[in-house]
Each structure stands twice: as structure tokens, then as C-alpha cells.
Design goal:
It is a single chain. The protein has 9 helices and 8 strands. With about 240 residues, it is an alpha/beta fold. It has one domain (about 10-205): P-loop containing nucleotide triphosphate hydrolases (Rossmann fold). Helix 2 (about 40-50) packs across helix 4. The radius of gyration is 18 Å and the shape is globular.
């Protein structure tokens, strides 16, 4: 990053399997930004709750789990790994069992409040950051320098997830994935606490038909344009 293009705080939101985590991480790497997938925090809390048999209707017990969860940076500074009690559990938090339970757990207001300040503290550290989630632009970082809402049709998202898991998108497993995503969308969009919705000032990027690289390029270009605009505005005010 150069003085002409300062690092921004970028809120990157979108529904499940919209690509915000993988795209956000790749875009952050190209930009020289840090990256945080806040969904990992909720997945880790869900995995730990399942492991400890903590129910979603026991908010105090859920909140007590938060201190055991840590996001660990990779070699590029991306907070892409989850550690619980010093053990890397990143692979464990991406299982179908966690997929099924994460909406209920992440909808608990007390848990979201417990994780809110941690997310804001990460964003406040020096340098540009791309923070991905479902309520970053609306709740976590409402004053972010740039808000992007990454979207795709539920059919496109189901196809991508099926291909990631090596199953036929048109087969029974693919149809099951589609049904689960539709259910997840409904739960996330209609929950009382921090429902999934784009911020009013978010830039929408619809990715149906895009390759992964095309979507990454769209995000990178959007961030660079916003950074250049911010730098030009700051230079004008300094005159």
C-alpha cells in the first residue's frame, strides 16, 4: 500500500456460500490487507457448543465459551485458523453438523454481543483489513470505509458448495445442499438479532456466472477505487 492508496476498513457481507470468505481472503492478499472471516468465530462457538453439549437456549453457557476461542493468522496475516485450547480445529468447524447448527447459535443475542468488541478491536488495528461476515456493514462496522455485499442466487451457491464437496449438483446430495442453503437464508434473513441484509450504502457485487478470479478482481478493483477516492479527498482537504 502506498500513501496514494491508504489501507481501508472494508466490510464484506453476503449470504452462505456467496464466496465472501475465499474471495475476501484472496482479495486481501492481493491488496496487502489483513483478512478476518468473522464466521469462523461463530462456527467455532457452534462446534464447541456441540462438543460440550451446550444448547442454543442457554446464552450464559454459550458466552462462557468465547474466551476459549482464538483466531490465528496464517503466513500472510489472514486470520484463517481457529484455535481452541491451543488446538487447531479449523477443519472441525467446517463440517455439515456445524452447518446445521450455526444459524441457531449465531442468532443468540448474548453471544453476538460477546463477540462484537473482539471483531471491532481486530478492525481497529493498524493497516487495511477486509472483514467478512453477515452483519459487518450493518452492525459490527457501520462506519467502515467501504461496504461490499457479495451475492449470488441460491442455486449458484448450492452448485458451488456441491462441487466443493465433490457431489453432483443435480443429484440427491446436491438437492439436499440446495434445500439446506434455502433454509439457512431464511433463518439468517428473518432472525431478530442482526438479520442478514445489505447495508444501505453497500456496493453490490453479484457473482452468478463469474469465475472465482473474476469475483476477486471485482472486489479488488472496488477497494482500489475507494482507496484512490479517499486519498484524493484527503489531499484536497490538506490543500
Amino acid at each position: 500500500m502506498s500513501p496514494a492508496q491508504p489501507g481501508l476498513v472494508v466490510a464484506l457481507d453476503g449470504p452462505g456460500s456467496s464466496g465472501k470468505s475465499s474471495v475476501g481472503a484472496a482479495a486481501a492478499l492481493r491488496l496487502g490487507y489483513r483478512f478476518c472471516d468473522t464466521g469462523l468465530l461463530y462456527r467455532a462457538a457452534t462446534w464447541l457448543a456441540l462438543r460440550r453439549r451446550v444448547r442454543a437456549d442457554d446464552p450464559d453457557a454459550l458466552v462462557a465459551l468465547v474466551t476459549e476461542i482464538e483466531l490465528v493468522p496464517d503466513e500472510n496475516g489472514r486470520l484463517a485458523h481457529v484455535s481452541v485450547d491451543g488446538v487447531d480445529v479449523t477443519a472441525d468447524v467446517h463440517t455439515p453438523r456445524v452447518d446445521d447448527a450455526v444459524s441457531a447459535v449465531s442468532g443468540v443475542a448474548e453471544l453476538r454481543a460477546a463477540l462484537l468488541e473482539r471483531q471491532r478491536a481486530l478492525a481497529a488495528e493498524p493497516g487495511g483489513i477486509v472483514m467478512a461476515g453477515r452483519d459487518i456493514g450493518t452492525v459490527v462496522l457501520p462506519d467502515a470505509d467501504l461496504k461490499i455485499f457479495l451475492d449470488a442466487s441460491v442455486e449458484e451457491r448450492a452448485r458451488r458448495r456441491a462441487e466443493e464437496r465433490g457431489v453432483d449438483p443435480d443429484g440427491s446430495d446436491g438437492r439436499f445442499i440446495l434445500a439446506k442453503l434455502r433454509r439457512r437464508d431464511a433463518l439468517d434473513s428473518n432472525r431478530d438479532v442482526a438479520p442478514l441484509r445489505p447495508a444501505e450504502d453497500a456496493i453490490h457485487i453479484v457473482t452468478d456466472g463469474n469465475t472465482f478470479d473474476q469475483t476477486v478482481e471485482a472486489v479488488v478493483a472496488t477497494v482500489r477505487a475507494a482507496a484512490a477516492s479517499s486519498a484524493a479527498l484527503a489531499a484536497g482537504e490538506a490543500r
